Amino acid sequence: MRRVGPASPSCSPAPDSLPLGHLVTAGRGSETSSEVQAVSVPDSPGMRSTVSFYICYLLLLCLGVACVACVCVWNSQWRGGFAWNGSALQFNWHPVLMVTGLVVLYGYGAVLYRVPLTWGQNKLPWKLLHATLMLLALLLSVVGLCAVFDFHNHTKKPNLYSLHSWVGITATALFAFQWVAGVAVFLLPYSPVSLRKLLKPVHVWLGGVILSLSIIACVSGINEKLFFSLKGVNGTRPYADLPPEAWFGNSLGVLIVAFGFVVLKILSNHRWQRPDSAPQEMPYSPLHQEDN
C-alpha cells in the first residue's frame, strides 16, 4: 500500500485567507483565546475612510446651519428685517432664500448618495429624497429671484445689469434644467440604462458647476450689498473702515466658500462613492458591512 506523506506546502491555507491569519501561525495551538483577543488589530482602510467621511459630513452640516443662521442674522439685525411690500425689507428675502436654497440645500442633496448608511438599500427612496431636496432648493431660489425682481420693479431699478445677477440667473437656469433632466433620465422608469450610464458623468459634472456658480453669485452679491449699503452716509461707516456689519458679511462669505469646499471634497473622493458607481479598483464598504 502506498504510504501517504505529509501534505505539500501548496495545500496549506494561505495566511491571508484567515481573518487573523497574520496573527495566528502554525505551532501556536496552545495559545489561549484570551491571548488572541489581547492582540490589537489595526483599523482597516475602509473603516478609516468611513470615519473620515462622517467627520467631513458633520462639518458640512454645521457649516450649512451656520450659513443660514448668519444670513438671517445679517438681514434682521443690520438690514431691518423682512417684509413683502416692494420695499428694501422685501429685498432682504433674496440673500436668505438664495443662500438657503441655491447653496445649502443644494449641497446637502448633492452629497446624499455618499452617506454610507444609504448603501445596500433600495435606491429608489433615496432618489426620491434627492429629487425632493433639489426641488425644494430650486423653489426657494425662484422665490428669492422673485423677491429681488419685484423690489427692483417697485423702486424703478434696472434688472440683471451686474455681473452678480448674470452669474446668479445662469446658476438658477442651469439648476432648473438639471432638475428636469435628472427626473426624466434617472427617476422615470422608461429611461434606458444605456442613456443613464451616458449622462451620469455629465449630471455629476454639471452639479459641481452649478454649485460653483452659486457660491460665486452669493459671495459677489454679499460684497455688492455691502458696497451699496456702507457708504459712510446716514450714520453708517464706510465699508473701507470695516464696521461690524462688514466683518459679519465678509465672514458669511467665508463660511459659504468653506461649505462649497467641503461639498466638492466629498464629491471628488472616489472612495466615498456609492458602491454601485465606484471604480472597481477602489473598493469601499460602509462600516456596518465591515463589522459583519
UniProtKB/TrEMBL annotation:
Main location: membrane
Enzyme Commission number(s): 7.2.1.3
Subcellular location: Late endosome membrane; Lysosome membrane
UniProt organism field: Mola mola (Ocean sunfish)
Alphabetical list of InterPro entries matching this protein: CYB561/CYBRD1-like, Cyt_b561/ferric_Rdtase_TM
Enzymatic reactions: Fe(3+)(out) + L-ascorbate(in) = monodehydro-L-ascorbate radical(in) + Fe(2+)(out) + H(+)
Keywords: Electron transport, Endosome, Glycoprotein, Heme, Iron, Lysosome, Membrane, Metal-binding, Oxidoreductase, Translocase, Transmembrane, Transmembrane helix, Transport
Transmembrane segments: 54-76, 96-116, 128-151, 163-190, 202-222, 247-267
GO molecular function: metal ion binding; transmembrane ascorbate ferrireductase activity
Positions of the Cytochrome b561 domain: 59-268
Oligomeric and partner information: Homodimer.
GO cellular component: late endosome membrane; lysosomal membrane
Top-level taxon in the UniProt lineage: Eukaryota
Record function comment: Transmembrane reductase that uses ascorbate as an electron donor in the cytoplasm and transfers electrons across membranes to reduce iron cations Fe(3+) into Fe(2+) in the lumen of the late endosome and lysosome. Reduced iron can then be extruded from the late endosome and lysosome to the cytoplasm by divalent metal-specific transporters. It is therefore most probably involved in endosomal and lysosomal cellular iron homeostasis.
Mode of membrane association: Multi-pass membrane protein
Cofactor: heme b
Name the UniProt record assigns to this protein: Lysosomal membrane ascorbate-dependent ferrireductase CYB561A3
